[in-house]
Amino acid sequence: MGDRRPHWLGEEALPWVEAVIEHARRLDGEPWRVWTRAREDLVVAPAGQIALVLDALEESWTSSRPLSRPPPRERRLAIYGAAARARREGTFDRARILGPAGDAELFADLPSERRVRLEVPSAQALLAAANLLLARRALRKASSVRIVLYGAAHGVIRIAQLRRLMCVARRSEDGLTLEITGVFALFRRTSMYGRAFASMLSALAACDAFVLRATLADGGTVRLQTGDPIAPPGAAATFDSKLEAAFARDVAALGGWGILREPEPIEVDGVLVFPDFAVWRSDDPATSWLVEIVGFWTPDYLRAKLDRLARAGRSDLVLVIDRRLGCAEVVPDLPVIWFDRRIDAAAVLARLSAPEVRLGLGDYFLDFAGRRADAIHARLAGVKPGDSLSIVARNGNVFLDNADGEVAALALRAAGVWRPRIERVRSVRVVSLVERRADGVREPWRSRLAVERWLVPLVAIGVGAS
How confident is the model at residue 66 (pLDDT cuts 50, 70, 90)? Predict the structure, then answer.
């Protein structure tokens, strides 16, 4: 079975589209129920085509809420109460109870009674809107999309990311190939991503050339391509997320830094990864860092993406990940800034300014928590990869603390190295946690333990200039 193709409306439909517009214009200000009945009176073209154009027309309409005082609901309640009392007293008079306003606007707050307020487009614009709606409906049951395109790829990829779609980009002989799917499409059939796929249509219209093939829930495929009427004339949209816009504003407000949206992609094993931003110090524009914001994931998708970044060997990359995703266990050994709802731009820039040193196992007093049967274990249970700790010198030793107290200690040699550098430390990031067991400790040290197992947080320390 070949690809399905939408049956587009062409220029030959313009005369009857004009007739539809004239019919609709006469109903401006009427209740929605009147318009609903009037739809059935149109027989100027095949019913399916008329319905498509009318649906596109309705998407641009609004319904006005009543402005009468008191509001219709309050007036109805007052009238019902007055009518009930009048009937009990035998004095019911409909005209007197309704008052001078009568029953006008009495039900104007109900959806079917709200007044239609038309914004009637030209026939050409309505035809384009109907074709765009047809394309969106064609993608409504799509579970995945494959796009081969030339030019303006950033716009398409940007929308895919903002709509929480998973996108893998590869260079090919035909141009750039995008494989796009949704998180839940991996586990079950769903139509929830059809609208997200459809939101890419305007960006595709800006490409030099493209072919889109969508796999539908029933196993069929639908194809859209260059030349299809998938965007209204002159449509131009800027696609941004509030999260990214706020980050860019915050970086600019801090001063001393430049920022570029959509830098050149990173290619690893033939797959392209598109970082969200490049940032650099204003006094050193030749040295820049890449910022990748991770706002959605499945374990396999995120692990594959981050493994590619790790294999790229880029020391100029920092990941900014939504903590609510709960994906700490799949984050590789890459610099990470965690955020809740809003990205801390100052923390990101501080991480870029401070090169990291990862401590090895030999740098820790590994049995520090094992020799204690106190609250340190409750504190360790709350530590997660990505958390920030502080490094503190006390009583001749060097400790790693969280907000509630110490969670680890450095070995004597490492303490001697880090004690004079503490003032230069800008960040302490938990990379992972390892579990130690008493049965893996030899005597005479084993006899000094107070618990059978405990955690040791492994960290990377960011150091600023001296």
Answer: very low
The answer as to whether 365 is a domain residue is yes
* Of the residues 77, 96, 130, the one at which a domain ends: 130
- Output the six-digit token pair for 409: 């200690």
Q: Which two tokens stand for residue 278?
A: 């490049």
Which residue is listed with tokens 């709606």?
133
Identify whether residues 287 and 393 lie together within a single domain.
no
Q: Is residue 180 located within the same domain as residue 265? A: no
What is d(CA 214, CA 143) in angstroms, rounded to the nearest whole number? 7
- In this structure, are 310 and 366 located in the same domain? no
pLDDT at 296: 59
Distance of CA 101 to the CA centre of its chain: 50
Q: How far apart are CA 418 and CA 409, in angstroms?
A: 12
- Please give the Cα distance from 426 to 341 (Å, whole number): 23
Count of CB atoms situated within 10 Å of the CB of 330: 19
Q: Specify the number of domains making up the chain.
A: 4
Q: Determine how β-strand 390-394 pairs with β-strand 336-339.
A: unpaired
Q: Which residues of 116-129 are buried (b: 16+ CB within 10 A; e: fewer)?
A: bebebbebebbbbb
Question: Quick one: 253 and 344 in the same domain?
Answer: yes
pTM reported for the whole predicted model: 0.54
Q: Do 360 and 405 fall within a single domain?
A: yes
Q: Are residues 378 and 393 in the same domain?
A: yes
CATH of the domain at 160: 3.30.70.100
Task: Note the pLDDT tens digit of each residue in 98-155.
Answer: 776 666 567 767 767 777 776 778 888 889 889 988 988 888 888 888 989 887 677 7
91 assigned to some structural domain: no
- Name the residue among 211, 193, 99 with its Cα closest to residue 149: 211
Q: Is residue 424 part of a domain?
A: yes
Q: 119 and 193: one domain?
A: no
Which of 353, 372, 402 delimits the end of a domain?
353
| Total count of residues recorded for the chain | 466
Separation of alpha carbons 77 and 100, rounded Å: 17
For residue 285 the two structure tokens come to 């524009």
Point out which residues pair with 167 in neighbouring strands.
180
- Name the residue among 298, 300, 453, 326 with its Cα closest to residue 385: 326
CB < 8 Å & 24+ apart, contacts of 200-203: 200/145, 200/156, 200/159, 200/160, 200/163, 201/132, 201/135, 201/136, 201/230, 201/231, 202/230, 202/231, 202/235, 202/237, 203/152, 203/155, 203/156, 203/158, 203/159, 203/237, 203/239
Q: Domain span at residue 263? A: 242-353
Strands of the sheet with 405-409, listed across from one edge: 390-394, 397-402, 405-409
